[in-house]
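pasting input
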Amino acid sequence: MVHNYSAGPCVLPQEVFEKAAESIRDYNGTGLSIIEMSHRSKDFVEVMDRARALVKELLNVPDGYTVLFLQGGASLGFYTSAINFMKNEGGVGAYVDTGSWSSKAIKEAKLLGDVRVLASSQDQNFNYIPKGYEVPTDVDYVHLTSNNTIFGTQFKSFPESKAPLLCDMSSDIFSKSVDVSKFDLIYAGAQKNMGPAGTTVYIVKDEALGKTGRAIPSMLDLQVHSSKDSMFNTPPVFAVYGSMLTMEWMKKEGGVSEMEKRNEMKAQLLYSEIDRNALFEGTTKAEDRSNMNPTFVLKDEEAHAARFDQMWKNANINGLKGHRSVGGYRASMYNALGIGSVRVLVEVMKELERTA
Amino acid sequence: MVHNYSAGPCVLPQEVFEKAAESIRDYNGTGLSIIEMSHRSKDFVEVMDRARALVKELLNVPDGYTVLFLQGGASLGFYTSAINFMKNEGGVGAYVDTGSWSSKAIKEAKLLGDVRVLASSQDQNFNYIPKGYEVPTDVDYVHLTSNNTIFGTQFKSFPESKAPLLCDMSSDIFSKSVDVSKFDLIYAGAQKNMGPAGTTVYIVKDEALGKTGRAIPSMLDLQVHSSKDSMFNTPPVFAVYGSMLTMEWMKKEGGVSEMEKRNEMKAQLLYSEIDRNALFEGTTKAEDRSNMNPTFVLKDEEAHAARFDQMWKNANINGLKGHRSVGGYRASMYNALGIGSVRVLVEVMKELERTA
């Protein structure tokens, strides 16, 4: 068994692979593969409807919100979120800059209007979540990145905002409970906790749309997609189907609150070892540590890296190398990573210390 | 066996389903599913490189062109093509309007500048391909839709143009030889001849890019994607992989020239029956008939439709219903539809006539 710590695309539940493989051969006894069916067929429309309903159910999405499965990843979402919320005349978007993904969101928004950066942790290589900044009311929206895969930080609570709150939750959606009613827009690439790469979920407050005075390209216009029940054009069929299966699994396992419990346990197990083990240290401020992507380094890389790398590879661990912006290691622990895999990693870390 | 005449997503080769299902369980003995591997892993980078190389090989793409696998379908391509080619100051795009997809492309381009419609077949519900119009030289580009799925027409030759020629080839790419050197941009949603829904191929002339004077959103900027070898952000892994498998199949079967031969045979078989059978008639001008999507109607629907519909369903034929804009029937016959399936349909048509 491979212990898959990839940062995304990443581990998904084994039963999702089994069901997806089966449906690629023959979808529910129809004699057709899930990927050769018309997206307007009753069978696929059911998949899309079910996927959208599961998002609502798992995240307790209140009435007045629409769930969409679109394409382009959060990277297109940076522009899409801004163009749907920033006014055409004198538009201003406010951003909290917590790392690469926030910075990219800021860059795209600047093509559309003024951007106000409320706070940034760039001064310390994004190793913490800024706090204590004033949240303005005279902006079109405030944009956050809830979890920062590269730097290993995560918002533990969200600022109160009178302006519409938009959030890129790509890397921690479905990992813990979230009060959707606080947000006008949540968007997230599927390829962490939700499913295979190739679709992006948008959860948008209906009454917030259509207020910018802009002519928005159809494929970037959330109102257009909403009016077509997320089927304005051919959807990314397999990615939506895989997401539906993954959400079915979450539901069966006990829903998001159960995922949250498991993720807390996994994170505690690994962070405890990082703190205890004399050879390692975490790279982020303790209170802002991500439960999804713990990042850590060897205190003495020269002395131990070669052996540690060999040891975890021997233990069938995959994808532990840190992002080049931080170095060291990153143990991405999304919903489908079992605690058994974390125990294996912790054991390797202990073994390294014992035998150093 | 189901005879799958769906207009897209549509039939793909059986061995693509087999290999894709296997790789979802375990990709090449890695112990990992193709959909849980990092897109930066050596294994997936090879898939992406191979997919891009196969497009070049199968279509004889000349040097100086780049192949990209992006997201959003041709529907996003309508805007993407325009924003990468239409000048910021005084930009003009020219379009030949051959139906719904062209009309949508025109709509998106109008958000960016002036649009000149060179010719349209709207006067006859798009049942022919306009000819004999003057191709201007004082425009930024000329845009065509090579095959019109809904109306069943297809360009049999392309106009000569001194302005850059852009073409949406979503529904006939890989179905016949094409001289890529005539185009500055070809784009195509995967879900017809190329693979599963969820990715869109762009074949773009390198020297044509970066000349509009526009600030283009990163995800819509073909130069950005080109500079990152089509991995600017997480690609739609499964759709790219499925496309690679489908292209491997095409290559093994004899390439695009062999596909063209088979498609000619299938089209001839069905159109001959449409013309011969007293109960049916085609809906398009004969010289512009699509080899991909023959459209036809019953001359007397009231008398025969109920029975014909029952008969083809009994014969395990799927997806024959025409688009609501045309009515009647549409037999989409993409590369992976075997001639045996066409024989079954023709037999049903003959049987209807015999027993009417």
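fyi The first strand of chain B starts at residue 3 and ends at 4.
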